[in-house]
Fold this sequence. Notes:
Its EC number is 4.3.1.19. This is threonine ammonia-lyase. The protein is 43% helix and 18% strand. It is built from 16 helices and 14 strands.
Amino acid sequence: MPHGPSLGTPLVPPLVTDADIRAARDLLAGVVRPTPLEYSRALSERVGQEVWLKCENLQRAGSFKIRGAYTRMARLSEEEKARGVVAASAGNHAQGVALAAQLLGIAAKVYMPLGAPLPKLQATRAYGATVEQTGLTVDDCLVAARAWADETGAVLIHPFDHPDIVAGQGTCGLEILEQCPDVRTVVVSAGGGGLLAGIAAAVKAERPDVKVVGVQAEMAAAYPASLAGGRPIPLEKMATMADGIAVGRPGDVPFALVRDLVDGIEVVSEAALSRALLFLLERAKLVVEPAGAAAVARLLEPGGQAVEGPVVAVLSGGNIDPLLLLRIIRYGMVAAGRYLSFAVQVPDRPGTLARLLADLAETDANVVEVRHGRSEAELFLDEVEIAVELETKGPQHRELVLRTLAERGYRPHVR
């Protein structure tokens, strides 16, 4: 869903300038590491353009968030630092705030959703922050964090809606320009918009000809409607595996920059996110969380608008629960036509299972698991259900397996 703002001078003075971003980079020297820019031959071949991966998943604390969190917190007064800080996050901002607080000697409390991934919870606590879980979304946690700030005087470190946060995230954009001087398109995931706004501000200040494209999860995409309406508009509901960009309302500060500087906002499906994560694991040997894979998901989508290369896709984070990773790998393989799970009801007679497996062997599919059940309510007394999980070689092979089963008299129920 593209959105095309003007590329000229914004109607109002920018909230974050190139000078702000360069000052943030000076502040972050020795704190963050310039992350690698890796060429992806596999992705370049798929896209038809030269594609580079900006590996913020390899940043300290596993995402770009330390850039903005440290910039914001280092600029607090001594009196503010003494009062401590409070934050709300699904995980990456939590770790960025906790690490920055540890480095700066500031007490930190972080509110995280009830469903936050366990590794993100553990890492946040390991950096020394106090963690409290509440609500189901980052927006719920922000309500609790603001209440705590009002009650105690702690300084709220917003995950995206502050000029210092955006300036810190923008230092990633400066690195992109230096590492890939001939870049023509930058693709960035977006939730509240801090990273997208910061990169756009940094890139457009020096290279207004470079296109900057934001990517949101289809089931948590607040920007398209907000841009169409001319103001941040909250979503009524969200449902996405990409918890790092599951934000119901764009921030005021990033919204203004995105509106004036970003060349398009597009959305990707859950299946596309899974395929992208699997692609990065297999072809780039990089562990990336669903939110961090959104830019690559956009590039892999066949129906997306053409992009001009060289392209830089930002991998915004790599903090993923291993259990979620297992589920996503399977989901991604199903979406790519490389995994098939089905059940058939057959007569409960000796040799039936062996016959089914022999029929599957003829299709050259790899059987991963077989389950044999007699207790399902819909079965007749002389029937048995056989559930099978297979590895297939792609969509065409998957269809061949199903067609062969039908030709042999089975009625597979795909799961």
